[in-house]
Amino acid sequence: MVGLSHFLVLSSILFCLGLFGVFTRKNAIMVLMGLEMILNAASLNFVAISRFSEKLAPAAGQVISLFIIVLAASEAAIALAIVLNLYKNFYNVNIDEINTLKE
C-alpha cells in the first residue's frame, strides 16, 4: 500500500534533484529545468497531503497544484524568452559568462 510517506519521500527526492540542478548547472536552460522540478515537488506535496488529510477539502491540494502548474508555465514562457534574447545578444546561455547585464 502506498502511503503519504512514499509521496513525501518522492517529493523530497525531486526537490533535492531540482536544487542540485539549480546550484550546479551553468546553462540557463538547465537551471530552468531544476526550477521546474522544484515546483513539481511542491505540487506533489500539496496533492498528497490533500489526499491523505481528513481536515482539508478533497480538492484543495488539486486546486493549489493547478495554480502551481499555471505559475510554472508562465515562468517557463518568460524565462525562455529571456534566454532567447540572451542568446541573440551574446551567442551564449551560460550564466557565468553573461555578466555584462550589470552595466
Summarize the structure in words:
This protein is mainly alpha-helical. It contains three helices and no strands. It has one domain (4-97): Orthogonal Bundle (Helix Hairpins). The longest helix has 31 residues, at 60-90. The relative contact order is 0.13. The model has no long low-confidence stretch (mean pLDDT 87).
SSE inventory with pairings:
Blueprint: H1 4-24, H2 28-52, H3 60-90
Helix pairs in contact: 1-2, 2-3
- Mean residue pLDDT: 87
Fraction in beta strands: under 5%
Structural class comes to: mainly alpha
Measured between the Cα atoms of the first and last residue, the distance is 57 Å
The Cα radius of gyration reads 17 Å
What's the total number of strands?
0
Unreliable stretches: none
CATH architecture identity: Orthogonal Bundle
What share of the residues lie within helices? over 70%
CATH class: Mainly Alpha
Q: Can you tell me the overall shape? A: elongated
CATH domain fold name: Helix Hairpins
What is the N-to-C order of secondary-structure elements (H for helix, E for strand)? HHH
Helix segment tally: 3
Q: Main beta sheet: strand number and arrangement?
A: none
How many domains? Answer: 1
